[in-house]
């Protein structure tokens, strides 16, 4: 395979807490999808939010992923070489120049506008129908403010965020798990933020820019991020890039049907390690849920590769019973 066309996936954890079993599921599937196609894996630390990200969580993430048996070719912990120098740095907190250049490009094209709506005003939209995790659609309140009106807001001391003036039309893509998808950006919440009022770059822009500049051509992540994908595809097109192939995998649920999250502290990989869990039992259980470890035996990620296929994943979320969780530390 031509090196320029080689598959390249990524693990993109946010260091806002310790990784839990639901994170491990998504990371394992992303790793398997790349490695089963002889592809590369990039580790990118999505620490763009300075209020929530902590360096100790970054260190813990790298340690926990390694403990699980996952590896990567490029990342913040790897020695610098020509490839890493061209694509890095691999922490979003150090990539501000790339984001500023992308925003400037969109501004020059007349595709952005300042939005002075406060958080309180946006929360008042809570009665409107929500779009999954995107919240209530933004109604375009500030989209057509005149220069005089914008100046008045600035004089009043209101700091704007920067929004994308979303183009019309359908965003179509074929998800490798969910099949054909078609959305308008209005379906996904309307004009979305590129930069917050405090100057922090928004998730959608950072992820789209990073995927483009790091040569990511396969993105495997949870189904809860599906609503972000049309927005990121739109940004990539506006910036002149192609979009990766996407696979949105089912989420893991606890016995009560709640999505595994950081509140499940007992399921943090760190906690499981402290309780004496064997990482091969964890990846073996996750592999059985993914259809690539039918016997449910303890298995390393590498041992799951021969049987892995995204086509074996169910479209529905997966509930893990307490008995299976207890067996991890038995």
What general outline do the C-alpha atoms trace?
globular
**What composes the largest sheet?**
3 strands, antiparallel
Order of helices and strands: EHEHHHEHHEEEEHEHEEHHHEH
C-alpha Rg, in Å?
Answer: 21 Å
How far the N terminus sits from the C terminus, by CA atoms, comes to: 44 Å
**What oligomeric state do the depicted chains represent?**
single chain
Q: If strands are numbered along the chain, what order do they take across the biggest sheet?
A: 3-4-7
Report the structural category.
Answer: alpha/beta
H/I helix tally: 12
Measured by DSSP, the beta-strand proportion falls in 5-15%
Helical content band? 25-40%
Provide mean pLDDT, rounded.
92
Low-confidence stretches: none
State the total count of DSSP E strands: 11
Would you spell out the secondary-structure blueprint of this structure?
Elements: E1 8-11, H1 21-35, E2 40-43, H2 55-68, H3 82-87, H4 96-108, E3 112-115, H5 119-123, H6 147-155, E4 161-164, E5 170-175, E6 179-184, E7 193-195, H7 203-213, E8 218-222, H8 229-238, E9 245-249, E10 252-253, H9 269-274, H10 279-289, H11 301-304, E11 318-319, H12 322-327
Parallel strand pairs: 1-2, 8-9, 10-11
Antiparallel strand pairs: 3-4, 4-7, 5-6
Helix pairs in contact: 4-7, 7-8
Relevant terms:
330 residues; alpha/beta; 3-stranded antiparallel sheet; 11 strands; globular
């Amino acid at each position: 395979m031509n090196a320029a066309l080689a598959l390249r996936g990524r693990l993109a954890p946010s260091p806002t807490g310790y990784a839990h079993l639901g994170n491990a599921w998504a990371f394992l599937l992303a790793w398997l999808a790349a490695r089963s196609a002889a592809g590369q894996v990039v580790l990118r630390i999505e620490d763009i939010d300075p209020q929530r990200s902590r360096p100790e969580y970054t260190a813990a993430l790298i340690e926990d992923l390694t403990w699980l048996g996952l590896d990567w070719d490029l990342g913040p912990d790897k020695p610098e070489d020509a490839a890493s120098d061209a694509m890095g740095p691999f922490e979003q907190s150090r990539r501000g120049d790339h984001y500023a250049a992308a925003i400037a490009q969109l501004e020059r094209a007349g595709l952005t506008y300042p939005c002075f709506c406060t958080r309180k005003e946006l929360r008042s939209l809570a009665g409107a129908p929500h779009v999954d995790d995107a919240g209530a659609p933004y109604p375009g309140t500030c989209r057509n403010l005149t220069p005089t009106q914008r100046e008045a807001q600035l004089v009043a001391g209101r700091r704007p965020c920067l929004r994308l003036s979303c183009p019309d039309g359908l965003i179509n893509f074929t998800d490798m798990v969910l099949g054909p998808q078609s959305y308008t950006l209005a379906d996904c919440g309307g004009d979305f933020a590129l930069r917050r009022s405090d100057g922090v770059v928004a998730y959608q822009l950072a992820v789209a820019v990073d995927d483009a500049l790091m040569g990511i051509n396969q993105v495997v992540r949870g189904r809860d991020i599906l609503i972000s994908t049309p927005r990121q595809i739109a940004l990539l097109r506006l910036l002149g890039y192609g979009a990766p192939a996407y696979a949105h995998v089912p989420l893991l649920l606890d016995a009560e049907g709640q999505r595994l999250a950081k509140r499940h502290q007992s399921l943090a990989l760190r906690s499981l390690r402290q309780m004496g869990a064997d990482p091969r039992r964890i990846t073996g259980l996750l592999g059985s849920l993914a259809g690539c470890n039918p016997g449910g035996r303890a298995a390393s990620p590498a041992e799951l590769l021969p049987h892995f296929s995204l086509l074996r994943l169910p479209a529905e979320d997966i509930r893990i019973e307490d008995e299976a969780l207890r067996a991890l530390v038995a």
